Amino acid sequence: MIKNIIFDYGNVLVDWNPAYLFLPVFGGDEEKCRFFTENVCNREWFTRIDQGESMDVCVAELQKAYPEYADVIALFRDRWFDMCSGDIPGMLEIIQDLKNQGMGVYGLTNWPAETFAEARRRFKTLASIDNYVVSSAVRLAKPQPEIFRLLLSKYNLKPEECVFIDDRVDNVNAAKALGITGIVYPGSADALRKELAKI
Fold first, then answer.
1. pLDDT one-digit tens code per residue, 32-83
2. Helices (H) and strands (E) in the chain — how many of each?
3. Is the distance from CB of 21 to CB of 178 less than 8 angstroms?
4. What is the C-alpha separation between 55 and 152, in angstroms, rounded?
5. Where are the alpha helices (DSSP H) in 66-157?
């Protein structure tokens, strides 16, 4: 029996996209923006920050490697919240409905230490989840199995009683490998309700 729902945060509860910040910086040139986010401020780089490395240190290192982009790289730190458009519509209501049904609600997120407290103040979906594990606090990141095990252990959860929802297939597959039911976020709260209803 499913008793607990575990939510990823970025692009499940909060709409996060580096292009929201960097596309205007590059004058709306999608090709230049894509090159920058795939080759300079890319996932491999910011995963280090998500795992607890200092944002200042990582930014300085990247600026040294790509001096031609130094000012733009700094924006990742200085205007981080410009990459967030807000709570994803309908997700707060899902969380509240699950709680009203007696379900346990948990968070498991890759998120920088420097912005997490402010994010919980800004976004109602994040503030509504009291029990969570944040990658930067434990120096682990999805899809590493250790971070899933840490969440399960911290809150005494049984994998077979949990559903994990994430926008990334590799993270969902990592959860499934541990016996957790996985859902790849289907793009909207209404579609997610239908997926949850099947389970």
1. 999 999 999 999 999 999 999 999 999 999 999 999 999 999 999 999 999 9
2. 12, 7
3. no
4. 28
5. 70-78, 91-100, 113-122, 124-127, 135-138, 145-154
**Residues listed for the chain:** 199
Structure tokens given for 80:
């981080």
Predicted pLDDT at 5 = 98
Could you tell me which residues come within 8 angstroms of residue 90 by beta carbon, excluding any fewer than 6 positions away?
188, 189, 190
Which residue, 81, 82, 37, 84, is CA-closest to 62? 37
Task: Report the C-alpha gap between 23 and 34 in whole angstroms.
Answer: 8
Distance linking the first and last C-alpha atoms of the chain: 9
User: CB–CB of 52/139 below 8 Å?
Assistant: yes
DSSP conformation letters of 139-171: T--TT-HHHHHHHHHHTT--GGGEEEEES-HHH
CA distance 41 to 38: 7
Between strands 4-7 and 104-109, the pairing is parallel
In the chain, which residues have pLDDT < 70?
A: none
| Residue the block writes with tokens 């499940």 | 12
Q: Tokens at residue 146, please? A: 């250790």
Looking at residue 179, its pLDDT comes to 98
